[in-house]
């Protein structure tokens, strides 16, 4: 299937590694131009190099989205260099473990800000360009928005708000034919996931315990499996799909726990 993403500029926030990195690679494989934003030039430049070696397009844009004015600067820089923005993937986030007990009002506010604010900022600054391209927005939320996790109030609040904003923006942007959708990953091995696992005393045992409860195939979801869904949603092949939440998680969130 031709996703018709050739030469389309897609901004992938947190697109240098993990799920965002897989989305950047999938966009590039489809002939699109992923512009991956991250803080660390090491991982950004190494992805740039990897794509160049495969004769694929894509570029790294350095920036810390938690700093004021980064979003505005990133959008201006991208439009100056590449001329248009077809789609925005809001993806950068951190499960920072700010809970009711291990946390306080200030750390909660900080966690919500760091996980949520740049989703709004990026959508706000990209909007004039998405209106021109009649493009779309894809928000990467989390299963935590629906299931809870315990001990992570700030992250859970931000992930829930991302789902609310997906519907809110899908409604507001109907007149411009801009679609807005969300993906809720569950268990995907990424640098973020690894560091979360390492917070347990026996991380291997915790991993096996989780895997044993994933209905389809008793395995983690691969980052490419999230990315394949993402490129379809970003493409005009999903031209009548908006305001939707997707769970590519092997049935983890929705199937009966007693299934073997
Ligand atoms: P990851 O491995 O930590 O990758 C995150 C990416 O975001 C990296 O490219 C990182 O690059 C970038 N990033 C982080 N903070 C940033 C900031 N302040 N400014 C700019 N870039 C930033 O995370 P992941 O596991 O792939 O998670 C991606 C998304 O999926 C997150 O929203 C997460 O909540 C969601 N999710 C993941 C899972 C899972 O199982 N992995 C489950 C549910 C939801 P730098 O470090 O260089 O900045």
Walkthrough of the structure:
- The chain is an alpha/beta fold.
- The chain has a single domain, classed as Rossmann fold (3-Layer(aba) Sandwich), CATH 3.40.50.
- 46% of the residues lie in helices and 12% in strands.
- It contains nine helices and seven strands.
- The protein has helices at 18-29, 41-53, 70-82, 105-133, 144-147, 153-172, 191-197, 203-211, 223-234; strands spanning 9-13, 33-38, 59-62, 87-90, 136-140, 179-183, 245-246.
- A seven-stranded parallel beta sheet has the order 3-2-1-4-5-6-7, with helices on both faces.
- Helix 4 (105-133) links the parallel strand 4 and strand 5.
- NADP nicotinamide-adenine-dinucleotide phosphate (NAP) binds next to helix 1, strand 2 and helix 7.
Features:
binds NADP nicotinamide-adenine-dinucleotide phosphate, 9 helices, alpha/beta, single chain, 260 residues, Rossmann fold, seven-stranded parallel beta sheet
| Distance between the ends | 34 Å
Q: Give the helix proportion (percent range).
A: 40-55%
Name the CATH superfamily assignment.
NAD(P)-binding Rossmann-like Domain
CATH topology descriptor: Rossmann fold
SSE topology string:
EHEHEHEHEHHEHHHE
Quick overview of this protein structure:
With 260 residues, the protein is α/β, with parallel strands linked by helices. The protein has helices at residues 18-29, 41-53, 70-82, 105-133, 144-147, 153-172, 191-197, 203-211, 223-234, and strands spanning 9-13, 33-38, 59-62, 87-90, 136-140, 179-183, 245-246.
């Amino acid at each position: 299937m031709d996703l018709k993403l050739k030469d389309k500029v897609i901004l992938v926030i947190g697109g240098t590694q993990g799920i965002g990195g897989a989305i950047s690679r999938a966009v590039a494989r489809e002939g699109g131009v992923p512009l991956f934003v991250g803080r660390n030039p090491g991982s950004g430049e190494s992805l740039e190099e990897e794509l160049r070696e495969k004769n694929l397009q894509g570029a790294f844009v350095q920036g810390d989205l938690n700093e004021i004015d980064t979003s505005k600067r990133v959008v201006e820089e991208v439009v100056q260099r590449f001329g248009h923005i077809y789609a925005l993937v809001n993806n950068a986030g951190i499960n920072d473990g700010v809970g009711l007990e291990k946390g306080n009002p200030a750390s909660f506010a900080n966690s919500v800000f760091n996980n949520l604010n740049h989703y709004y900022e990026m959508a706000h600054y990209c909007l004039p360009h998405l209106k021109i391209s009649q493009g779309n927005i894809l928000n990467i939320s989390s299963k935590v928005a629906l299931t809870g996790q315990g001990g992570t109030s700030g992250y859970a609040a931000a992930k829930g708000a991302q789902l609310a904003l997906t519907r809110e923006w899908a409604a507001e942007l109907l007149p411009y034919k801009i679609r807005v959708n969300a993906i809720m990953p569950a268990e995907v091995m990424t640098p973020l996931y690894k560091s979360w696992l390492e917070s347990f005393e026996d991380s291997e045992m915790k991993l096996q315990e989780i895997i044993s409860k994933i209905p389809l195939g008793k395995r983690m979801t691969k980052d490419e499996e999230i990315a394949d869904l993402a490129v379809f949603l970003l493409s005009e092949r999903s031209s009548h799909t908006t305001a939707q939440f997707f769970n590519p998680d092997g049935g983890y969130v929705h199937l009966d726990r007693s299934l073997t």
